[in-house]
Structures are given as C-alpha cells and as structure tokens.
Amino acid sequence: MAIAERTLRGPAARLVAAVLLSCALASAGANAEPPNEPTRVLNRTEGPGRQVELTVHSAAMARAVTVRVLPAANPDAPAPTLYLLNGVDGGADGNWFNRTDIGEFFGPRQVNVVVPFGGAGSWFTDWRADDPALGRQRWTTFLTRELPPLVDATFRGNGHNAIAGISMGATAVFQAALAAPGLFRAVGSFSGCASVSDPLGRTVVSGIITGHGGDPNNMWGGPDNPLWAANDPALHADKLRGLSLFVSASTGSPGNHDTLDDPRIGGDPLTLADRVVVGGAIETISADCTRRLRDRLVELRVPATVTVREGGTHAWPYWQDDLHAAWTQFEPVLAAP
C-alpha cells in the first residue's frame, strides 16, 4: 500500500493535523491577529463610599480599562448616567474621585457617575494607527459604543446620558457627542480647547502627545490630513444643536482658589507657584479657545452656557465648581421623558 493510501491514527494523525493547521495559518498571513474577545466586564470590586471599580475588556482597544462608578442612590431603580473624563494623565495623578467632592455631591442623587481611567496623552479619541509608545487608542469607540451598554446593563441605566470632562477630556466630550448623535443629552467642557485643527490647536495637541512619548501622526496623520478638521468640534459646532451645553474656563490670572489655604495647595509655596505660573498659562490658552467657541456658537445660534470667569487657573477646585454649576443645568434635562 502506498503511503498516500494509508490511514493514520493516534500520535501520527495528530502530528499530521498539527502540521496542516500550521500551514493553513501561515497561508492566512503570518501577521494575522487572532479574533479579539468581546467587550465585557472582567472584574468587579466594591470600594469605599459605595464606589465600584470595574475592569472592562475593550474589544476596540484589545485591552482592559479601569472604570470607577458611583452608582445611583437607589440602585434598584433606573437612573441616568453622567460620564466624567479625566485630564491629560488619564487620572493617574489626579482624578474626579480623589480631587473633587463627587462622592459627597452625587452620593444622595439618583444618577450613575462613571469615570474611565487611562488614555494619558491620547485625547480620548480614535487613532488611525497603533502607536509604539501609547498603543492602540480607540477611546471614542469605547466611550460611545462599548461602555454605555455595559453601564446600563450593570447599573440599570435608563439611557439618559450626559458627559463632561476637563482639559484634554474637555475636547473629547464634544467629539464623543458628535460621533454618537442621540447618545448624550448634555455636554460639559471645562478648561478645554475645541479648536484642534488650527495652528495653535495642532501645536497644543501634538505637544501633549509627544510629551507622553507618542507620535501625533498616528492619531490624525500629518498637519494636512483631513482627519484633523473632521475631529475639530468647533468646525462642526452646528451639529451640537439640541444638546444642553455648558462650557467654561478661567482667564488664567490667580483666582479665589489660588491661595496657600486651598487644601490642594497644602500651604506649600512651590505648589502654589506652579499652579499660578504653569496652570495660569495653560488656562489662558483654554480661555482663548472658549471665547472663540462661544463666538462660533453665537454665530450659529446654538444655545449654550459659556462662561469665562475672571480669575482662576487650570486646577481641580475650579472644575469642581464647574461641575456643580453644570449639574444644575443637566439634572432636569436628564430627568425629562
């Protein structure tokens, strides 16, 4: 009997099958990625003050993302959801839970408060290519398509959503709302810059990315790539019509929270000097961006609450004040049928 006619069994058969499978995989492409796992909650940990920490596998980013949640006061009843985005460090240094009073402020309220962590230097947007330093960034997809269904299913979300963010996150909130019309009813942008495609905007965006070791070309391409304009909320401000908009910044000069008595300063003159000098300079840029967005919204007759307060730096005490003020505007919007 010729070898081609033999019936192989046992170890010999398994060896041939393994070889054939290897050849098939090779023919499909040596660099082909294995099928990704679906988005799901990998782990849930109960924390202090009713906080819940979720480890969520993102199919879009092919990795785990930490998400902290303050569930609504009555977890057995449906509730709206407020998503809060951190700043440039993704929450590693300071975040909504450890730098503001959201635990006390929202504790008695019937709203789920959701804070994603990670994404330092990513602008919380979808990148066109994976970055050698920052990895795969698909934050718009995560925030608009992957996370909300999980939150609603886990914490009885009723589908009435708002999103707010600070600094880098204050730009991403507009992008998320524009990418998913109807998902959010309200948007809060505190000390951000919506104009990302003009020369100043590109310089700021690129500087933050390179400061975290990334390549700006992997996000939206080179300066002439149309993706910059496509992701510029100021250029598409007409599409924000119908949302409850709350936009704020300070002038950058020292304000009422910029004192040695502020708990976050802790009486340290060097910390205060850093806030006044560095935080003041950053906030000056945010104020200019906010004024330009205000003018654009007025031109388009898009209703919005836009405030540039006289005095104040790029710092958490002002963002806490902004969130309190924004919530007064957002709460009835989220409660409406």
From TrEMBL:
Signal sequence extent: 1-32
Species annotation: Nocardia bovistercoris
InterPro entries: AB_hydrolase_fold, Esterase-like, Mycobacterial_A85_antigen
Source taxon at top rank: Bacteria
Keyword vocabulary terms for this entry: Signal
GO molecular function: acyltransferase activity, transferring groups other than amino-acyl groups
Protein name: Esterase family protein
